[in-house]
Prior knowledge:
This protein is mainly α. The protein contains 9 helices and 3 strands; from the N terminus they run αααβββαααααα. The radius of gyration is 15 Å and the shape is globular.
Amino acid sequence: MTDIFPYNIIDRYYPIDNTLKNILVTHSRQVREHALSVDRRHPELHLDTQLLSDGALLHDIGIFLTHAPSIGCHGDYPYLMHGYLGACMLRKEGLESLARICERHTGTGLTKDSIQKAGIPIPINDYLPETLEEQVICYADKFYSKSHINQSRTPEQTAQSLAKWGQQCVRRFLEWHEIFG
């Protein structure tokens, strides 16, 4: 796969250059650069650089199906479903490893309990990042918000923003920061 590949997928689902596509591409590039910087700093992890690049560019592919008007999403589904929806899209494309990245990047991963508590209408399952590449992309994603596209968070700000989802999410992020930071 080449750098052109993820953009072909993005263009298929986001054919019009508009605010939403700009937010998606800008955010995804930020996440990709952060993930690739982890790869450069930690060669001992033996990360799949191409999977990191492609996964970071496609991790949010499903946002257009959700309802988040502040970032130009006018779909029918709750925003917290975007990872699951993106995974369904990429599975139809035959891209299982990229689908797993999509469905496992929300928060620091979703557990059965968190899905039930939040009432997210997806199959009750654990969607926690398992591979190092899934973890790195999930970690890198937490530093950038699509609502504040030109800003990045510090690790402390990121941990604070995750606190609303519970201390387990904060702990998972801080564990990743020890490894990837």
